[in-house]
Each structure stands twice: as structure tokens, then as C-alpha cells.
């Protein structure tokens, strides 16, 4: 054990700065296990308290538009086809054909082999400042593949034109206490995000909190992902229940806040899966604004991983502009 | 406009059907008082809400006589199951009129609507439901078979949780078979008077509950009235002491729930984010107008700076303003008198050398307001570390070892409540065991439940309210072995 623990880990700038130059399994473990605990009852009470904020009139209008602008519109099905992806991209660009003032979503999120089709469908609407393309990689959703396969998966998506990579961590390694394995893999995937011109695709690290089970684990995994170089920490794949919850997201935002206080650096957060209504999404906006601050409410620092959420927001938006409720036939199916 | 300046979301007052003026509620009817009437105002705007009658000696006589009559003729003859039915009915009516009661409470008291809506009024209903269940089970109250009701209970309650304190007093008294004359605080009579309407709606027999309004002299007349068998008081230690003196030797049974200066102890292994929330909830809940408020923060020295920094950051996000706005965190101070006292003690804190920090928030022009304030560099000899401020003011002290934390926590004339924050269960149990406080919360604060007894050590009073223990204040044992007692005791 002692021998194994002294194995040096991949050099990662953030971890080196915080923990020290000679990063080992042992020093990483000491750091993660030394983090303050999380009291589950207190965390959930705080989340539910934030959920009671009453967002009305002008604040609601702003919130609905902002939610749309923060959505990663997602299709991650085995049955995905180029046609399905084209349709998703069309919706991303024009969420509400009956009201062209509706903002575009932040990104579309697809499997790696669909990136090419997304690039094609987006055309000039993509690129910097446009709708981004996020690709899930690293043997999503289970993450059960050898590291070279995960790296190849990532490189392929980046080469195809993905702006962002949503990777999954090795939950098995994490739960068995091999933090170094998880750490090294994130560092390696981050390197695989590097493009030929030296820029990097944005890396979102999916913790799959539904499998980590305890809040203490979520806090440790969040720190681990940030130390290894993740640009975003993301709750879930959407394939495991529970997916995103408000308390888990609040906890991850608290870690991000701590990191910001410590280093001045801003890390993004992406709750994904299970957020289906405007009412729920507004609770997340409130939680972000009151935990890390309103400046996090922009696509570079906060995203919703969702598909059905968009239509509910559009219905609410129509209600706010027209004064009456429409119905599911007044928004497009995808 | 930034998102965080949430658009106004005020709860409508249209749900209220207030009268211009309110009389005394005696023998099931509203009657005019013979004292000089007074106004109740909204502390957030200083605007008058209603004209309130004051009870003089004559009115107190009439109220006590009505309670005695109701006790002799009706209430003591009802079975416990039938008393329970009335209590259940009251509980359901409170739930039905919950929104109205919450709005009235926030209007009259100044507390944020989210607290009156989510804490006060639900607890009021819970208290009546809980004691309704006890009414026919008094044999199991731990006082032997057939415990007896005491008779007429005189109850005087404070302004910080007007309706909740009323429920704490009335529910166990009625369940145990007593009748009641209760006096709400002069600055917050409104919800008690709406509650009187609920009693009419519930068809509670006339005289079982009498609600008389007025200031301290009315309260004094009530507790010193020779016709009462029981006195229950919640309020300041000074008044409690006076009541203890004047009732001594009269044979009146007495319970007192008085002041506090609770220690909230944060160890270095505490779940830090939740501890911050707990500290905020401990002292800034209800503007700090809480007798069990965690007004002394004892924090382990090696994490003191971090805790204070985080606390300041968190306090900067609190919203002070219109109590009826659903997003308000900190409402108005209940009265000018209380505001003056908070100001005075805070100024003393500064003069004594403690360092004052106040959250940056806009104070409304009218009404009584005090921004959340923290004092650091406080030592145990400072007045702000010893006297009850009863406002949104936190004193931060430090400790090095668990033993020091315990000795500092106990170094107070009070002993109502305490909090412990640590991830280590054995430490929580070990420290809790040594704290001389009636309630000890671990990794939480200000949690109330009707099944849990509440009360203090030392100058925080005596007797317990809530739970099975709360019944003991309104019952006496008929003796374990007396067959006569068994046949004559309060009816089940």
C-alpha cells in the first residue's frame, strides 16, 4: 500500500499549486479526505430553502430567457441518426418558430460519432460565440473502457469539431479509493482535448453523483475533477437515477465557490438529467446566484443538460408574452 | 436590473378581514374593555392596523370568572375524547386559515412572511394536533392514573412568536382540562384576536378560552388574580422574577420560560457550509427575537477566521425589507423600544472594544430596522457576551479545547439552549452531556417539534413546554394509591 501510494501522479498545474510539486496518490488522498464533511440534512434544508424564492414578473422573464441560453440541448440515444441530430440542431437555433426573439440555446450535446453531422447542420451558426457542440466521450455513460480507448474516443470527437467534451470519471476506481487512477485519467483526457493549434476543447467532468451516493463523495470528486484540470463539473450522465438534484448541485457550487476564493479561478457547473420544468430550472438559477454569484449565470460557467426542459420554458415564455397558456402543440417536438 | 434584485413578490393583504377595533374576547364574545385602548401598528411602516381594547382590573375579574364558570360547568365535565375533538377542530381551522394568519402575523410582528408561512403557522397547527391526541390519554402522562386539571390558567405571552406562543400555552392547557385567560403582548395582539374568531368558528364552549389585551399592568393583574390556579409566562427574566415573587406562597403552580444567551459551538471538524447556515439561522431567524437564539458563537480558534469570513459573505446575501415580500430574509424589529435596546447594547459593545461589522443593506425610511451585525474580538466579560440583546446581533468568541468550549458555554446566568457543530458523533454526545442548557441542538439550530419538551436551566426559567413533559405543567397527580382519586380524577 505504501509503495503504491507513493506512485507519482500525472503533473496537473492546479494540483501542483495546491498540494505541492511531488503529487502522489498519498498526498492526493490526504487532501481529499481532509476536506470538511457535509451534513446531509443541513445541505438539503438549505437547498429547499433556496427553492422557496418567489421569482415573478420581470425577474421571471429574464430567468426564462437566461435558462434557454444556458441549455445544452441533448440527444444521447442509441437510436440517434444524422436526421435526429439535424432536427435537434434546428431546434437549438430556432427554439420557438412563433417568436424569433427567443434566444438560442448554449450548445447541442451528442455522441462523438454525431459531431460531424452537428457541425454540418450548424454551419455558420456554430463556432465561437455561436451554438457550441458538446460531445460525450470516454466510453460514456459507464466509462468502463481502457484509457487508450477513452483517449481515442475523445480525440476523435475533438478532431470532428467538438467544442466541448463531456467525459465520465471511473466511478469504480473512485469508490474503491483509487483517486490517483481517476485523477490521471482526467489529466490524460484533458490532454486529448488539445487541438493541433494548441487550443483545448472545453472539458466537462461528469461525476455521476447518483453512483457516488454520499455528499462527502460528491465533494471529494468535485475537488478531484477541478484539481485534475476540468473546466466544468457536471452532475450526471442522465442514464442513472437520481440524476441532478438541487442539493447535489448546491454542494458542487459550494466547491466551485471555495476554489474561486482560494485561487480566483472560475469553474463551471452543469446539472444534467431530471430538470424538466421552468419552475425547477429557476430554482437552480436562484441557487447559482445566491451561492457563487450572478456572474456564474452565463454559458461559460453554467449549463443545464436537458432536452424536455426547453419546451416547458418556451410554454412559460409564451404565457408571459401573450398572457395566456398555449399547449404542447404550440411548441415543436424536438 | 440584476437578477438578484428579485422583482417584488408581496403576499397580498386582501385575504385579511380586519376590524377597525377589537374588544376583549371574554365568555365567547368580543366585549369592550374598560382600560385606555391602544393602537397596534405595523413595525415595518409604523402605520396603524387596528384599535385594541385594554383590560382593567374589572375586565380581568370578569374574564377569570368566565373561565372559572366554564371550568366548573362545562370543560371539567367533558370527557378527554370530547376535549380532543375541539382541539382537532381548532387545528384544522388554523390550517384552513393558515395564509390569513401568516399575513396577519407578518403585518403585526414584522417577521418575514416566509417564516410565518413556513414555520410559525404550521407549528401552531402541529401543536394543537399533538395535544389533541393527548386529551384522552392523560393516564399515560407519567403522573399516575387520573391526573387532575388545575382549574383556571393565567397565561402571558411575548411578541416574538405571538400565535405560536399562544398555541404552546393554550393547547396543553385545554388538553389537560383547564380553562384559560391569556394575554398576548401589547405590540402583537392581532393574531390572537383572529384566533378568537377561530374559537367561535370551532364552537368552543364560551369561557373556556378568554383573550384579554393590554400592557404589562393587565398582565400583572391577571397573574396576581386570586382566582387563577396556574400561571404560565414566557418573556423577560426581569418580569419572570417579579411573577415568581408575587405568586410565591399563593399555591399557584408556575412555569416560566425566560431569556437566553445560547452558545453555538463550532468545532474545527464541523461541516462548514452547513455550520454557516446554522449560525445564520441561529441568530438571524426572526431578527434574532428568539429566546433560544444562538447569540454567542463559540468557534475553535484554528478555524475562526475562516468561519467569520464565510459568515460575512453569507450575511451579505440576506435580504432585509418588506416582511410581506416572499423573498425577504430579515424583517422589521418589532418595536421602537426594542430597536432602542438593540442599538444601546450594540453601542456598548463597540465602547467595550469589540469589533463591529454590519451587513451592507438598504434600510427602509419608515419602520424599525436593524441590519445583521457581528461583533468579533468579544471576550466573556463584555456585556454583549452576557446580556440578552434579543436582536440580529451575534457575538463571536473563540476557544481552543472542548473543555474550554464547555466552560465558556456554561458561563452564563442563562441556560435555555445550545448548539454543537462537529462531524464527530462521540464529541457531540460528550459535549452535549456537559452543557447546562434545556435544549441542545447538534448540527442544526432552532428546530421545534410539539413532541419535544422545551425549557431552561437557571435564569432561563423552569418547567417544560411541549411533549409529554408539557402536560405536567397543567396537571397534578391524584396520587398513585388512592381509590378515591381514581374515581374522582379528571375525566378521561
Furnish the topology, listing elements before pairings.
The complex is a heterodimer of chains A (334) and B (492).
Chain A: H1 2-5, H2 13-19, H3 25-33, H4 40-50, H5 57-69, E1 71-74, H6 82-93, E2 107-111, H7 115-122, E3 132-137, H8 147-160, E4 164-168, H9 171-175, H10 179-192, E5 202-206, H11 209-212, H12 215-227, E6 232-234, H13 246-263, E7 268-270, H14 278-291, E8 304-306, H15 309-322
Parallel strand pairs in A: 1-2, 1-8, 2-3, 3-4, 4-5, 5-6, 6-7
Chain B: E1 21-22, E2 24-26, E3 29-31, E4 38-41, E5 48-52, H1 57-73, H2 80-96, H3 98-109, H4 113-134, E6 148-149, E7 152-156, H5 162-175, E8 179-183, H6 190-201, E9 209-211, H7 216-223, E10 230-234, H8 237-247, E11 253-257, E12 263-266, H9 272-284, E13 296-300, H10 304-315, H11 336-351, E14 355-358, E15 373-376, H12 383-386, E16 393-399, H13 402-410, E17 417-421, H14 425-434, E18 439-442, E19 461-462, H15 467-471, E20 475-476, H16 483-488
Parallel strand pairs in B: 1-5, 7-8, 7-10, 8-9, 10-11, 12-13, 12-17, 13-16, 15-16, 17-18
Antiparallel strand pairs in B: 2-3, 4-5, 6-20, 11-19, 14-15
Helix pairs in contact in B: 2-4, 3-4, 3-6, 4-5, 9-10
Characterise this structure.
The complex is a heterodimer of chains A (334) and B (492). Chain A has helices spanning 2-5, 13-19, 25-33, 40-50, 57-69, 82-93, 115-122, 147-160, 171-175, 179-192, 209-212, 215-227, 246-263, 278-291, 309-322, and strands at 71-74, 107-111, 132-137, 164-168, 202-206, 232-234, 268-270, 304-306. With 334 residues, chain A is an alpha/beta fold. In chain A, strand 6 (232-234), helix 13 (246-263) and strand 7 (268-270) form a beta-alpha-beta unit. In chain B, the strands form 5 sheets. A 7-stranded mixed β-sheet of chain B has the order 14-15-16-13-12-17-18, with helices on both faces. In chain B, strands 9-8-7-10-11-19 form a 6-stranded mixed β-sheet, with helices on both faces. Chain B has a 3-stranded mixed β-sheet with strand order 1-5-4, with no helix packed on it. In chain B, helix 5 links the parallel strand 7 (152-156) and strand 8 (179-183). Chain B is globular. The chains are: A alpha/beta (334), B alpha/beta (492).
Amino acid at each position: 500500500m505504501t509503495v503504491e501510494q507513493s506512485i507519482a501522479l500525472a503533473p496537473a498545474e492546479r494540483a501542483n499549486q495546491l498540494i505541492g510539486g511531488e503529487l502522489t496518490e498519498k498526498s492526493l488522498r490526504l487532501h481529499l479526505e481532509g476536506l470538511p464533511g457535509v451534513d446531509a440534512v443541513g445541505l438539503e434544508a438549505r437547498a429547499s430553502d433556496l427553492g422557496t424564492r418567489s421569482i415573478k414578473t420581470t425577474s421571471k422573464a429574464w430567468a426564462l430567457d437566461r435558462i434557454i441560453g444556458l441549455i445544452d440541448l441533448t440527444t444521447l440515444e442509441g437510436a440517434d441518426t444524422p436526421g435526429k441530430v439535424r432536427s435537434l440542431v434546428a431546434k437549438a437555433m430556432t427554439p420557438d418558430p412563433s417568436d424569433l426573439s427567443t434566444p438560442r440555446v448554449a450548445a447541442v450535446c451528442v455522441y462523438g460519432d454525431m459531431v460531424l453531422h452537428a457541425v454540418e447542420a450548424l454551419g455558420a451558426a456554430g463556432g465561437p460565440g455561436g451554438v457550441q457542440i458538446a460531445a460525450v466521450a470516454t466510453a460514456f455513460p459507464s466509462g468502463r473502457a481502457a484509457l487508450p480507448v477513452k483517449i481515442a474516443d475523445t480525440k476523435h470527437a475533438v478532431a470532428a469539431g467538438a467544442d466541448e467534451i463531456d467525459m465520465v470519471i471511473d466511478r469504480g476506481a473512485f469508490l474503491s479509493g483509487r483517486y490517483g487512477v481517476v485523477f490521471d485519467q482526467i489529466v490524460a483526457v484533458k490532454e486529448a482535448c488539445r487541438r493541433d493549434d494548441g487550443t483545448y476543447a472545453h472539458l466537462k467532468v461528469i461525476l455521476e453523483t447518483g453512483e457516488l451516493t454520499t455528499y462527502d463523495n460528491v465533494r471529494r470528486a468535485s475537488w478531484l475533477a477541478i484539481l485534475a484540470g476540468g473546466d466544468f463539473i457536471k452532475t450526471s450522465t442522465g442514464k442513472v437515477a437520481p440524476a441532478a438534484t438541487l442539493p447535489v448541485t448546491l454542494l458542487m457550487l459550494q466547491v466551485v465557490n471555495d476554489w474561486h476564493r482560494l485561487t480566483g479561478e472560475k469553474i463551471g457547473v452543469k446539472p444534467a438529467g431530471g430538470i424538466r420544468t421552468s419552475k425547477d430550472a429557476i430554482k437552480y438559477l436562484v441557487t447559482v446566484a445566491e451561492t457563487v454569484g450572478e456572474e456564474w449565470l452565463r454559458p461559460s460557467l453554467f449549463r443545464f443538460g436537458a432536452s424536455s426542459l426547453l419546451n416547458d420554458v418556451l410554454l412559460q415564455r409564451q404565457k408571459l408574452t401573450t398572457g395566456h397558456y398555449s399547449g404542447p402543440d404550440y411548441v415543436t417536438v424536438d | 436590473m440584476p437578477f438578484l434584485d428579485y422583482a417584488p413578490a408581496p403576499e397580498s393583504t386582501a385575504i385579511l378581514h380586519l376590524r377597525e377595533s377589537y374588544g376583549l374576547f371574554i365568555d365567547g364574545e368580543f366585549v369592550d374593555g374598560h382600560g385606555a385602548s391602544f393602537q397596534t401598528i405595523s413595525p415595518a411602516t409604523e402605520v396603524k392596523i387596528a384599535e385594541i381594547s385594554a383590560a382593567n382590573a374589572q375586565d380581568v375579574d370578569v374574564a377569570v370568572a368566565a373561565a372559572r364558570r366554564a371550568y366548573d360547568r362545562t370543560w371539567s365535565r367533558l370527557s378527554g375524547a370530547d376535549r380532543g375533538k375541539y382541539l382537532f377542530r381548532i387545528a384544522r381551522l388554523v390550517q384552513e386559515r393558515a395564509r390569513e394568519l401568516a399575513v396577519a402575523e407578518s403585518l403585526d410582528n414584522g417577521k418575514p412572511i416566509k417564516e410565518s408561512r413556513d414555520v410559525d403557522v404550521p407549528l401552531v397547527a402541529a401543536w394543537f394536533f399533538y395535544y389533541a391526541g393527548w386529551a384522552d390519554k392523560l393516564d399515560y402522562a407519567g403522573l399516575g392514573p387520573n391526573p387532575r386539571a388545575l382549574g383556571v390558567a393565567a397565561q402571558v405571552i411575548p411578541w416574538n412568536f405571538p400565535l405560536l406562543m399562544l398555541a404552546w400555552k393554550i393547547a396543553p392547557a385545554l388538553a389537560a382540562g383547564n380553562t384559560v385567560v391569556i394575554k398576548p403582548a401589547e405590540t402583537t395582539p392581532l393574531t390572537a384576536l383572529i384566533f378568537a374568531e377561530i374559537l367561535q368558528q370551532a364552537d368552543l364552549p364560551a369561557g373556556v378560552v378568554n383573550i384579554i389585551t393590554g400592557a404589562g399592568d393587565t398582565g400583572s393583574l391577571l397573574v396576581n388574580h386570586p382566582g387563577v390556579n396556574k400561571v404560565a409566562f414566557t418573556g423577560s427574566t426581569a418580569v419572570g422574577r417579579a411573577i415568581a415573587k408575587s405568586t410565591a406562597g399563593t399555591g399557584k403552580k408556575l412555569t416560566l420560560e425566560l431569556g437566553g444567551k445560547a452558545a453555538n459551538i463550532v468545532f474545527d471538524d464541523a461541516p462548514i457550509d452547513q455550520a454557516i447556515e446554522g449560525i445564520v439561522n441561529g441568530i438571524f431567524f426572526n431578527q434574532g427575537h428568539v429566546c433560544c437564539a444562538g447569540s454567542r458563537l463559540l468557534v475553535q480558534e484554528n478555524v475562526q477566521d475562516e468561519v467569520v469570513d464565510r459568515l460575512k459573505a453569507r450575511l451579505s446575501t440576506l435580504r432585509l425589507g418588506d416582511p410581506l415580500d416572499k423573498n425577504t430574509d430579515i424583517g422589521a424589529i418589532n418595536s421602537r423600544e426594542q430597536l432602542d435596546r438593540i442599538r444601546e447594547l450594540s453601542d456598548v459593545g463597540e465602547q467595550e472594544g469589540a469589533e463591529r461589522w454590519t451587513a451592507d443593506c438598504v434600510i427602509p425610511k419608515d419602520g424599525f430596522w436593524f441590519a445583521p451585525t457581528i461583533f468579533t474580538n468579544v471576550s466573556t466579560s463584555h456585556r454583549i457576551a452576557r446580556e440578552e440583546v434579543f436582536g440580529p446581533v451575534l457575538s463571536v468568541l473563540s476557544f481552543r479545547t472542548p473543555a474550554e468550549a464547555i466552560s465558556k458555554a456554561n458561563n452564563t446566568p442563562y441556560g435555555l439552549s445550545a448548539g454543537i457543530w462537529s462531524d464527530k458523533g462521540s464529541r457531540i454526545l460528550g459535549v452535549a452531556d456537559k452543557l447546562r442548557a434545556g435544549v441542545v441542538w447538534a448540527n442544526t439550530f432552532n428546530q421545534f417539534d410539539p413532541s419535544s419538551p422545551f425549557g431552561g436551566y437557571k435564569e432561563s426559567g423552569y418547567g417544560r413546554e411541549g411533549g409529554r413533559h408539557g402536560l405536567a405543567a397543567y396537571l397534578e397527580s391524584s396520587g398513585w394509591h388512592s381509590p378515591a382519586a381514581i374515581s374522582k380524577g379528571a375525566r378521561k
